[in-house]
From TrEMBL:
Keyword terms of this UniProt record: Glycosidase, Hydrolase
UniProt lineage: Bacteria, Pseudomonadati, Pseudomonadota, Gammaproteobacteria, Enterobacterales
GO CC, alphabetical: cytosol
Oxidoreductase listed as a keyword: no
NCBIfam families assigned to the protein according to its UniProt record, in alphabetical order: PRK09593.1 (NF007158), PRK09852.1 (NF007356)
Any Pfam family hit: Glyco_hydro_1
Protein name per Swiss-Prot or TrEMBL: 6-phospho-beta-glucosidase
Keyword Hydrolase part of the UniProt annotation: yes
SUPFAM superfamilies: (Trans)glycosidases
Organism this protein belongs to: Candidatus Pantoea floridensis
InterPro entries: GH (IPR017853), GH_1_N_CS (IPR033132), Glyco_hydro_1 (IPR001360), Glyco_hydro_1_AS (IPR018120)
Length: 478
């Protein structure tokens, strides 16, 4: 294995999201948000997909986001743990409904602003750079019930007001911003991705792509505003990444994989290049989609992002014959199971070379710096008799992917930094489970919300500390 060389000043850290970690779902003036309506259990997927309307909470269901891991009240201790590992960057998100509880108010909630200012100041105290997502699967419920969420063009103005408030309130504390987390998930999980629910008689593709247009215009407008507020601001887009491999060398399979890649890259093509890609016209025509645009939209879209961020957990496989029956249910982005790869406990293919492939493809396509803002292994972690959690499987996964990152850098791909997903155990977005753990820090909490919330350092905690201290040169297990 070749030696890994990361550039001086490379940002090492981890990532959480407000909706999966903060809890205190109505504290400090916060309003209800989409994730607060998504239960654990059998109804979770229909609600996430926008197939089952959930506009009111039910007393007979458990909602994991309501308490999550209590980061809202424990952030100082949690950031101290990050500092102990040596983090130089921490990715988190702002809950829109903490700043604007309903989403359409004219003045923000000062208590919400004070919370995030304190959080970012705590990061700065330890020399940790915040990387902040404005919308991480998080839409105020009032905007869903009153306006239909992102299907409504009025959302552009609401989101722009919210973003400007954040840029101004946290100026000097936050330099790196992301507009929408995994924006392409809108197509695959419409309610959790963008607050969309569907009526029986409408074309869901029309709704999704019209909402996508509104988000893309909003993202470009917000990028422009960020640069106006402070030219030093760096704004990125965010893709749920991972290339599709053709199932075989049959030309129809190669074409199917190309189309699946385009389906996801469509969003970044607009955000990074500043215009709709040429293939979009045919896709819209075949899906019966007609995008309503305003005359100024084309000019607005030309405000492109400064860098391209992405998540990478696994590569994917596509064939001309893939369907709901033969595709993996392990992720909302459907894929055939690759027989050449080992799989995680949740069925995700473990493919570090796929990360190198994805990074090279993205830089070839966009010629903008990359930032890997989610990567990790969801697994069941067991405590031994001595109270230790020896997660060597996680160390192995991360080691291989950091090596692949280094290889891509050696290929000539500029990478700003790396934030592992769920650096402290958190509620899994896909399943709502706590038992699907990603962190270097164990949180005593089960899938039903029981537990002390005590934080316990895993073996990977000490390993990652060593990785950061050596700037990625020492990947040996401890």
């Amino acid at each position: 294995m070749s030696a890994v060389t990361f550039p001086e000043g490379f940002l090492w850290g981890g990532a959480l999201a407000a909706n999966q970690s903060e809890g205190s779902y109505l504290a400090g003036g916060k309003g209800l948000t989409t994730v607060d309506m998504i239960p654990h259990g059998a109804h979770r997927m229909p609600v996430k997909l926008g197939l089952e309307k959930r506009f009111a909470l039910r007393s007979d269901e458990y909602y994991p986001s309501h308490e999550a891991i209590d980061f809202y009240r424990r952030y100082q201790d949690d950031i101290a743990l990050m500092a102990e590992m040596g983090f130089t960057v921490f990715r988190t998100s702002i809950a829109w409904s903490r700043i604007y509880p309903k989403g359409d108010e004219l003045t923000p909630n000062e208590e919400g602003i004070a919370f995030y200012r304190s959080l970012f100041e705590e990061c700065q105290k330890y020399g940790i750079t915040p990387l902040v997502t404005l919308s991480h699967f998080d839409v105020p419920m009032h905007l869903v019930t009153e306006y239909g969420s992102w299907r409504n063009r009025k959302m552009i103005a609401f989101f722009s007001r919210y973003a400007r408030t954040c840029f101004e309130a946290f100026d000097g504390l936050v330099k790196y911003w992301l507009t929408f987390n995994e924006i392409n998930i809108l197509l695959h999980s419409p309610f959790s991705g963008a607050g969309l629910v569907f009526e029986p008689d409408e074309n869901p593709e029309q709704v999704k792509y019209q909402a996508a247009h509104h988000e893309l215009v909003a993202s470009a407008l917000v990028t422009k505003i960020a640069h106006e507020v402070n030219p030093a601001n760096q704004v990125g887009c965010m893709l749920a990444g991972g290339n599709f491999y053709p199932w075989s060398c049959k030309p129809e399979d190669v074409w199917a994989a190309l189309e699946k890649d385009r389906e996801n890259l469509f969003f970044i093509d607009v955000q990074a290049r500043g215009a709709y890609p040429s293939y979009a016209a045919r896709v819209f025509r075949e899906k019966g989609v007609e995008i309503a645009m305003e005359p100024e939209d084309a000019a607005t879209l030309r405000h492109t992002v400064d860098f391209v961020s992405f998540s990478y957990y696994a590569s994917r496989c596509a064939s001309a014959e893939m369907n709901e029956q033969n595709s993996s249910a392990a992720n909302v982005v459907k894929s055939l199971t690759n027989p050449h790869l080992p799989r995680s406990e949740w069925g995700w293919g473990i493919d570090p070379l796929g990360l190198r492939i994805t990074m090279n493809m993205m830089y070839d396509r966009y010629q903008k710096p990359l930032f890997l803002v989610e990567n990790g292994l969801g697994a069941h972690d067991e405590m031994n008799a001595d109270g230790e959690i020896n997660d060597d499987y996680r160390i192995s996964y991360l080691k291989q992917h950091i090596q692949a990152m280094g290889d891509a850098i050696a290929d000539g791909v500029p990478l700003i930094g790396y934030t592992t997903w769920g650096c402290i155990d958190l509620v899994a977005a896909s399943t709502g489970e706590m038992s699907k753990r990603y962190g270097f820090v164990y949180v005593d909490r089960d899938d039903q919300g029981n537990g002390s919330l005590e934080r316990i350092r895993k073996k990977s905690f000490w390993w990652y500390k060593q990785v950061i201290a050596s700037n990625g040169r020492n990947l040996d297990s401890i």
